[in-house]
Amino acid sequence: MKKHHHEIAAMIVEPLVQAAAGILVYPKGYLKSIRNLCTKYDILMIVDEVAMGFGRTGKMFACDHENVRPDLMCVAKGITGGYLPVAATLTTKKIFDAFLGRHEDYKTFYHGHTYTGNPLGCAAANASIDLFKKERTLQKLQPKIRSLTKRLEEFKKLRHVGDTRQCGFIAAIELVKDKKTKRDYQMSEKIGIKVVKEARKQGLIIRPLGNVMVIMLPLCISAMDLNIMLDIIYSSIKKITED
What we know:
Layout: E1 10-13, E2 17-18, E3 24-25, H1 30-40, E4 44-48, E5 72-75, E6 88-91, H2 93-97, H3 119-134, H4 137-155, E7 161-167, E8 170-178, E9 183-184, H5 191-201, E10 207-209, E11 212-216, H6 223-242
Parallel strand pairs: 1-4, 4-5
Antiparallel strand pairs: 2-3, 5-6, 7-8, 8-9, 8-11, 10-11
C-alpha cells in the first residue's frame, strides 16, 4: 500500500473469516489494521458481509467486533433470513453524494440489476430485520455460541481432526491423515464427501470444503437440534476415519 496506494482503488475483504477458503479465521485486530491502513493511504475499504452479516458471527455484522466502519459493505443471504434472494450495497454518504448532480453531468450510477428493488424481497428483508429486534435474536444466540465452542473441544480428541475453527455461529472441523504432522488427505480420497454421505445416512445434510467440514448454522436452531447435529458429525467422522 505504501508503495502503490496511488494506483489502488480499493481493498476488498471478507471480514473475520475467509469462508470459501475453508473457514479461515483472522487473528484478532487484523480487520482493524486493514481499516487503519486504508484510511492512512486513502484506499476504499470494501467488506463482503454476504456470509458473515446478520448475526452469523455473533454480532449483527462482523465489522462490529472490531468497531470497523467500511466505505462499502455488501450484504445478502441473512438479510431476508433466506426466504427470498435479496442483496444490497451500503456505503457512506460521501460516496453516495459523489453520484449526485445534474442530469447532464452523467454522474448517475447507471449500472443496475433486473431484480433491483424487488418489493417482495425488500418486504421479506424488513420483516427479518424486525424479528432481530422483536425476538432478541443476537442475545439469544450467545448461549448457543458458547455451547458450540464447548462441543468443538470434543472433536479435537478424534485421531484425524487436525484443527477446529470457530467465529460465532460459524465453525470448521479440518480432517487430516496424520494428526502429528498435519499431513492432509489427498483430494482423490474424497474424505470430506465420505463423511458427508455418512452424515446423510444419519439424517443430517451438511457440506464439506475439501477436507474441511463446514458448520453454518441457522440462527434459530434449538439447543437440542444443535447437539443432535454435532453428535451426527462426530460419529460420522469417527466411523469414516477410524473404523
